[in-house]
Every structure is written in structure tokens, then in C-alpha cells.
Design brief:
The chain is α/β, with parallel strands linked by helices. It has 3 domains: about 10-45 and about 65-75 and about 220-295 and about 405-455, FAD/NAD(P)-binding domain; about 115-205, protoporphyrinogen ix oxidase, domain 3, CATH 1.10.3110.10; about 300-400, Polyamine Oxidase, Chain A, domain 2, CATH 3.90.660.20. It contains 16 helices and 21 strands. Helix 1 runs parallel beside helix 16 and helix 8 crosses helix 9. The radius of gyration is 23 Å and the shape is globular. About 45% of the residues are buried.
């Protein structure tokens, strides 16, 4: 299909999805105006350098897959890339009150004390499972239990989901949150065989293994700052809350900025805002909110504490990416990231940095505590897991009241509402982490697809 003529596109939301869409549309010759209700573009990606420490308020790293690599190349940021340290390949899980290394090979799995013999045998036997064609969605925990053991759910899946979604595998949809697993069972029966086949297919297209973990010398905000800087001056409006969309030819948007109501006409509108903002948008002259129920998508609160210590205050060698904590271990932290091991420049000489995550679906009330109370709450965990001694010499707290959308079973009801709204109003397109996946690479892919859909009409 040939591209449409140049149009004026409104993009609501200046997170990584909206900024990626804006850049691609600008490259194609479209005029773009990006609306961001916050004080700066970038969404949840925020990097701060202070007193020799470098910390992230949102995502801490990203996988350097094809979409990310293409964007980095477009922006000329290759020289700013920082690969994760070799030690980052080592991951930990808590078992019986201490960090245990996650086995990275079949021989290591056999020797590992992380799982019992029954779980180890279930991993081998699962290779012979026949394909199943399920019609009803199910939770990730249900799927894994049906193929392996409860121990694997407790000591692998549960902490992994806490680290990715701040979620609960009993309440996450396989079909929507992990479509590759859903497809693997349907096509191969064995989840392991299915994932191996997927890896082989990716290798055949030139993608080698799992994408490496990267950041940038000055943090992930380098990426969103570069995106915003590549757009024409004045095209990103901050402190601008879009309140109403009046569909038509052209569409009209009404927004608030600096205490004043303003409006403008656009050929096309792209909604790349979080679910909460989408739920509040009125569409049409009668004040209807067709996406109001998106407010009901669970978004657990999450707090992170970036803690700096002198090296001699931490007994653990911090020789890895970090560690995740299963719920059955009854701790107050979801996980601990070894930030100063992961990337250079995160702590001054002679010091180390940890990022601790608290709350989520598991313990939402913990995330709402004041920083000092939160530090007291997790003190015992820090002592037991990394051998922390004494108070940190540096601390910064970030609280996300509605952190990560949970793709629960039945999530299609919200996807259907977004699809129906687009169908009713040609020239309206919706994307972002409420629809297309929660990771930074997912959001970059979403922005690219949105730009393609706009250009194709």
C-alpha cells in the first residue's frame, strides 16, 4: 500500500512509544505534535546523576534486539551504549533465606540445590508432551503447573514475574502476557521444545540467541532525550493534558496547558498514553468516555530504593545481575538489582549501588510507605541477603502508584474496546503498554507499528 500524503498527526503521550512514533512519522514527512501531561518527555524512563551516583527511576536496562538496535542507529547513539558487565549473566534466586545462583546449563541444573529431583525430572519428561489445543485462557501458573511442578512455579515463575511485571503468575494471562508460550503449547505440546523451535527460527533470520542487556553511559534517559531532540522545535508540548477528542475530518483535540484550555485540528490522532489517561479521555461532544473501563486494568504500586554503600558495608560479592525473591520465602522485597555491577559509573569509587524493588501485586501496601519506613522494613532482608551493615550513605526513593499494567485472563475485553474505538473513528490509532506489551522494546515496536499504520492509512 502506498503512503498517504503528508498530514498533521497528534500524538498523545511522550513516553517511548509516542516518541518513537513521532520520530518515524517525522522522517516520513508528516507534521507531528506530541502532547505530554508531565513536565518532560520520556514517560517512566528517568535517569539522574547526583553526587557521583547514577540511578534510574523506571526501567534499569533493556534488551538490545533488532528494533532497539535500529532506533539506536537512527539516533546515532552507538558510542553512548554501555553493555552489561559479563557478571550480569549470573542471576540469583532466594532459597531457604539466601541467594542461590540460577543454573545456566543442564549440568548446572542437575547439580543445583535450587530445585528438587522431582522438578528436575519434570523438565526432562516435559520434552515428550504432545500438543494441546486449549480454547480457554489460563494463568501462567496454571500452565506451568500442568507441565512441571508447583516447586517450579514457586521458585522460578513467581519471582520472575515479580521482576518483570511486579505481578502474580496466578493472575497473569498466558495468552496475552506470554503469547509465545501459548503458541508453543499449541504447536509443540512441550513448552521447552516450542521455545527451542522459536530460538531456531530466530537464528535462521539472523538473530543470535537472547539479545544482550544494555544501557547508556548516562542512563536510559539518553534514548528518550535523543528522540525528543530529533523532533522539530515546539513539536513536543509538556504540561499538556488532552481532555477531549472530537472525531471528524479533521479531528479536533481539546487540551489544558498552563491553566488554559486550547484546541486544534489534526488529520490523524495517535493515542500512546497509559491506560489511566486513556480511560479519562472523552470522545465526542456528549462527554462519553468509551475507554473508561481501562481504569480497571490492575496496576499495582511499586517503590524502588536506590541505595549506595561503602564497599566494606556489603558482604556479598555482588557478582551478578541481582536476585529475585519468591513469595514463599516471605520477605519484604521483590528483588535486589546489583546496579554498580551491572553497568559502570553507577557509584563513586570504593562504593556499590543496589536498587531494591518493593510492593507489586504481592505486597502493595509496602510500596506506599515513606522512604524511612520502607528502609526499616527491608533492613533485615538486606542483612540476610547481601550482608548489609549500617545505614546507606546515599538513598533515593521512587514511587509509582500505578506501575505496570497486568495482562490478566480476560484482557481481551479491553483490547476489544480499543479496537472498536479505532473502527468507529478512521484516523484514530491506539498503542502503548496498555495494548502491545510492557517492556521498553515492546513499546518501541508499538511506536514503529503505529507510525506504519498512520502512513498506510
Amino acid at each position: 500500500m502506498t503512503a498517504r500524503k503528508s498530514t498533521h498527526v497528534a500524538i498523545v503521550g511522550a513516553g517511548i512509544t509516542g516518541l518513537t512514533a513521532a520520530l518515524r512519522l517525522h522522517e516520513q514527512g508528516h507534521r507531528v505534535t506530541v502532547f505530554e501531561r508531565g513536565p518532560q518527555p520520556g514517560g517512566s524512563i528517568r535517569s539522574t546523576s547526583e553526587e557521583g551516583w547514577l540511578y534510574e527511576a523506571g526501567p534499569n536496562s533493556l534488551q538490545y534486539g533488532p528494533e532497539v538496535k535500529q532506533l539506536v542507529t537512527t539516533l546515532g547513539l552507538e558510542a553512548e551504549l554501555t553493555p552489561a558487565a559479563p557478571q550480569a549473566k549470573r542471576r540469583f534466586l532466594v532459597r531457604d533465606g539466601r541467594f542461590v545462583a540460577v543454573p545456566s546449563s543442564p549440568p548446572a541444573l542437575i547439580k543445583s540445590k535450587l530445585f528438587g529431583a522431582r522438578t528436575k525430572f519434570s523438565l526432562l519428561g516435559e520434552l515428550f508432551t504432545r500438543p494441546r489445543i486449549r480454547t480457554a485462557d489460563l494463568s501462567l501458573a496454571e500452565l506451568v503447573r500442568s507441565h512441571f511442578t508447583q516447586e517450579l512455579v514457586d521458585y522460578a515463575v513467581n519471582p520472575l514475574i515479580a521482576g518483570i511485571y511486579a505481578g502474580d503468575p496466578e493472575k497473569l494471562s498466558v495468552r496475552h502476557a506470554f503469547p509465545a508460550l501459548w503458541a508453543a503449547e499449541r504447536s509443540h505440546g512441550s513448552l521447552i521444545r516450542g521455545m527451542m523451535a522459536g530460538a531456531k527460527a530466530r537464528k535462521a533470520t539472523g538473530q543470535s540467541g537472547v539479545p544482550p542487556i544494555v544501557s547508556f553511559r548516562r542512563g536510559l534517559q539518553t534514548l528518550t532525550d535523543a528522540l525528543a531532540a530529533r523532533l522539530p522545535a515546539g513539536s513536543v508540548l509538556t504540561g499538556a493534558t488532552v481532555e477531549t477528542l472530537l472525531p471528524g475530518q479533521p479531528h479536533r483535540l481539546v487540551w489544558q496547558q498552563n491553566g488554559q484550555s486550547q484546541s486544534g485540528e489534526f488529520d490523524t490522532v495517535v493515542l500512546a498514553a497509559p491506560a489511566t489517561a486513556l480511560s479519562q479521555l472523552t470522545v465526542g461532544s456528549l462527554g462519553e468516555r468509551p475507554l473508561a473501563t481501562l481504569e480497571n486494568i490492575p496496576h499495582p504500586p511499586v517503590s524502588s530504593l536506590f541505595l549506595g554503600y561503602r564497599r566494606d558495608q556489603i558482604a556479598h560479592p555482588l557478582d551478578g545481575f541481582g536476585g529475585l525473591v519468591p513469595a514463599v520465602e516471605r520477605r519484604n522485597v521483590l528483588g535486589i538489582l546489583f546496579s554498580s555491577t551491572l553497568f559502570p559509573g553507577r557509584a563513586p569509587e570504593g562504593h556499590v549501588a543496589l536498587t531494591i524493588f518493593v510492593g507489586g501485586m504481592r505486597q502493595p501496601d509496602h510500596a506506599r510507605l515513606a522512604p524511612e519506613a520502607l528502609l526499616r522494613l527491608i533492613d533485615r532482608d538486606l542483612q540476610d541477603l547481601v550482608g548489609a551493615k549500617g545505614a546507606p550513605v546515599f538513598m533515593r526513593h521512587t514511587h509509582w502508584p500505578r506501575a505496570i499494567p497486568q495482562y490478566i485472563p480476560g484482557f481481551e475485553r479491553w483490547l476489544d474496546q480499543m479496537t472498536a474505538l479505532e473502527a468507529r473513528h478512521p484516523g484514530l490509532f491506539i498503542g502503548g503498554n496498555a495494548r502491545d506489551g510492557i517492556s521498553v522494546p515492546d513499546c518501541i515496536k508499538s511506536g514503529t507499528r503505529l507510525a506504519e499504520r498512520v502512513s498506510q492509512g
